[in-house]
Amino acid sequence: MVRWTRRLDRFASWWWDVALVAVFVLVTVLVARGATADLDLGVRDWVQTHQPGWAHAAARLLNYLGQGWLVMWIITGGLTVLLLARSRSWRALLPAVTGFLLTYVTLGPLKVWTHRDAPSSALPNAVEMFNAAATGYSNSYPSGHVVNAIVWWGIIVILAGRMWALPPVLVRWVRVAPPVVVLLTTTYLSYHWITDGIAALALGLLLDRLIHRVDWNAVLPDLRPARTGVEQPQG
To answer: How far is CA 29 from CA 22, 24, 34, 129, 168, in A?
Structure first.
């Protein structure tokens, strides 16, 4: 049985989840009505005219932090197999399965439904949503890279935290840095419009909050090395 955490921090309220849904809906409505077109086009035009070779190469490399094959299959998959082998418990599969199902039932349908071209598309009206002329690039909204960076790095921390004692500062960096980097690089490389990334932040944080409401400390085996000995008083 899945156990839910009883978090006492001020961000535990379900109203924060409602707020994230509202942000996603609001951004989607504004994009669909064309209210954000000037913003999207302005950002795209600026980044496409400010791309020295070294910056473009660095952005492409850093953008892998949101690539599904890396964060989901290689890193998360590797940690899942390791936890499964060490614990011999099928529950080791649950974080990855949960993340896959939540992203599968949200990202895919939304991309098909919104049918929006990427900024790199040659179509003059690529910024529009529900674009009948969109073809090969019609999978831009919301940014899957950004959602991946939020959801999968959060799951990576869950899995790694059951096998090793992770310093809190490392956990914070792993949870925050990849989404920020991926948001900036996907926009800079014209893989996604800036509003694709903003909507993805709201969706990704919502999914991440749902995942972290599960009490994984109770669900998953704890394989962290036990502390040996008690520090003796000096003098």
So the answer is: 10, 9, 9, 10, 38
